[in-house]
Amino acid sequence: MKIKVSELIVRYLERLGVEYIFGMPGAHILPVYDSLYNSSVKSILAKHEQGAAFMAGGYARASGKIGACITTAGPGATNLVTGIANAYADKQPILIITGETSTHIFGKGGLQESSGEGGAIDQESLFKGITKYNKIVERTDYLGNVLNRASKELFSDNPGPVLLSFPFNIQKELVDDDILDNIRTEKIPFSIHQDSPSINAFADLIIAAANPVIVAGYGCIKSDGQQLVSQLSESIGIPVTSSLKGKGVISEQSELSLGSLGVTSYSHAYSYIVEKSDLIIFLGAGFNERTSYLWDAKLLAGKKIVQVDNNYEQLEKVFKADVAINGDIKAVLSAVLGNLQAKGVERKTIESVQNQLDNLEDRSSETDSQEFRSRFPLIEKLFVKLAQCFPKGIQVFDDNIIFAQNFFNVSSENRYYPNSGVSSLGHAIPAAIGARFTVDKPTFAILGDGGFQMCCMEIMTAVNYKLPLTIIMFNNSTMGLIRKNQFQQYEKRFINCDFENPDYAYLARSFGINYKRVTDESGLDDLFTNVDCAGAINLIEIMIDKDLFPSYTSRR
């Protein structure tokens, strides 16, 4: 049976399990939009294409499924760049569909042409460095091959964005609908045997270690391996610290939790690893600049190392491991636990983590933590109250990072999504909206007033689709990180960091959403008592002093 390419694209989305596609229509992509009219895939109208890309990313992170976005040619596609770069850095499976001018006018100066011909924008080159695969489909005879390649990247162990651009005339051509019958549209599960040499070596290192420690990264969450990390930790007695993206892999209220590891963290994790541990088990943690304390050699010195990651390129990228396993975290841990059980290994008699923390020689993190808390008591109480009032079942998208990293004890039944990726401002609100489409739980977007002004119109997307969302905005009338750096490193020569804010009460009223301004602790008590954080759209403005900074010093 012959169908239009536009219809085939939509059927491909359906077979991939795509539920929502975020974007904005334009003339060059209208055939696909028309085919979406009666589809099970629901099209969501964003206010800006960057917001659409962030929504697709938020959806993918919260659901574990493929996110999707759609735009027209030219500026529609170019507006996606930052959001897609963020998805690429976070290895999110995002399918991007864009339109293009008809092939017969390539190179002739067509409106919004992006073919790269005759001086036109070269869209393929523009996205080359931030997609796993991107292709302008100029003919239909190889369409099956293109879709197979797209599926391969989207379902790989290390996925990323895939961009397919369809010229206007190609969208209207007819093709056989059985093309899709030969295209893989599901992920192949990974398995590993508990008696394999690498699993045996992993288990033997745990048995031999006196003070092992786990560094849990986002890979544990992506593989749905949190429960197995907790099981390994509790059954053997292994303390766990997480990367920033791994917060909540085990409950941070657990006696075995060391908190978050990183240059912007004031936890004892760094000192504990340096002074106490003899085996470090990296589980889906990239040991990047933040986590590694700028690759401080003291963290790894004199220790045995196990590294497990589903991305082969991450293995031994910056250090030599005694055991390096390329595989899915959940599958590997299941095999290791089976191996340890078969060997009859019991819980280690390890001095309590709290006693070991009390005996650390390096107390600098404790001093830094006390100073940090003294500067931001209102924000600390905000996160304490958030954890108390919502011990489970919430998702938090956070652009500010440092406050939550130190003040928010994430339970294993909550989800915390820091703005890692390329750390772009304006991410939290659209990403939280995308997630809210797939997860029916209280959802929070946390960001500063600078980032808020980059993305605040996407609040109307939440309004239009009646999506409950609570936005917590820190207002200090400055770009806080820039002002901090200029204070610490540039002799207080402040330039282009301060700005005037609008009246947010009136702004919220114009959006038709709830508003609350918090200036003291009594306001926080009222916030979590009287504000509907589960069923309404709320803007919460938290006032902070522009001249109070975290004490850590940035490199740049």
Please, what is the average pLDDT? 90
What is the CATH C level class of the largest domain, in words? Alpha Beta
Given as residue ranges, the uncertain stretches (5+ residues, pLDDT < 50) are none
β-strand number: 20
With strands numbered from the N-terminus, the spatial order across the biggest sheet is 3-2-4-5-7-6
User: Number of helical segments?
Assistant: 23
User: What overall geometry do the principal axes of the alpha carbons give?
Assistant: globular
What's the name of the CATH homologous superfamily of the largest domain?
A: Thiamin diphosphate (ThDP)-binding fold, Pyr/PP domains
List the helices and strands and how they pair.
Blueprint: E1 2-4, H1 5-15, E2 20-23, H2 30-36, E3 42-45, H3 49-63, E4 67-71, H4 75-78, H5 81-89, E5 94-100, H6 123-128, E6 133-136, H7 143-154, E7 162-167, H8 168-171, E8 174-176, H9 197-208, E9 212-216, H10 218-222, H11 226-236, E10 240-242, E11 257-260, H12 269-275, E12 279-283, E13 304-309, E14 323-326, H13 329-342, H14 353-358, H15 364-375, H16 377-389, E15 395-398, H17 402-407, E16 415-418, H18 428-436, E17 443-448, H19 449-455, H20 459-464, E18 469-475, H21 480-489, H22 504-511, E19 514-518, H23 521-530, E20 537-543
Parallel strand pairs: 2-3, 2-4, 4-5, 5-7, 6-7, 9-10, 9-12, 10-11, 12-13, 13-14, 15-16, 15-17, 17-18, 18-20, 19-20
Antiparallel strand pairs: 1-8
